[in-house]
Amino acid sequence: MPSQIELYEEMSLLSSRMVVAARASAWDSLKELEQRIVGLRSRLPTVADDGDVPATDLARKHSLIQRILDDDAEVRRHTEPWMDHLCHLLSDSARRRDILKAYAASVGRSSADSRGP
Fold first, then answer.
1. 8 and 68 in contact (C-beta within 8 Å)?
2. Phi/psi at 4 (nearest 5 deg)?
3. Would you say 59 and 6 are in contact if contact means Cβ atoms under 8 Å apart?
4. Domain residue ranges in the chain
5. Does position 114 have pLDDT exceeding 80, yes or no?
């Protein structure tokens, strides 16, 4: 079973690849990498804490976590504008659908009213 540091090293490698994917707008690749990181992160609680580890290992662990956080910020810098754009598109689409539905209902009522009793 890998140690915590080995898990963090693998997560760091994957997060670096996520940055590359985000910069390239490779959303499928980004999603797959994210899922792999989630899998590794879920394993962290099952791995015994390294206990009495040397200060160099703690420094390495800290450095890896900081790099992962920095990569996450970079990925978000690239994905958030895309997500905002997608939300606007979906919102506009829903609004159009609601308008068309209201118009169809209105036209249906108008047609029924014009036919009379």
1. yes
2. -60, -45
3. no
4. 4-115
5. no
Note if the pTM is more than 0.85: no
Q: Give the start-end residues of each E strand in the chain.
A: none
CB 50 within 8 A of CB 57: yes
Alpha helices for 24-54 (secondary structure H):
27-43
Query: What average pLDDT is seen over the chain?
Result: 84
Rg, C-alpha atoms of the chain: 25
Contact by Cβ (8 Å): 22, 30: yes
- b/e for 54-66, b at 16 or more Cβ within 10 A? eeeeeeebeebee
| Closest C-alpha among 35, 33, 45 to residue 7 | 45
* Cα separation, 78 vs 33, whole angstroms: 15
Q: In angstroms, rounded to a whole number, what is the distance separating the alpha carbons of residues 61 and 101?
A: 56
- Residue 68 DSSP SS3: helix
CATH class belonging to 4-115: mainly alpha
Positive or negative, the CA dihedral 32, 18, 80, 70 is positive
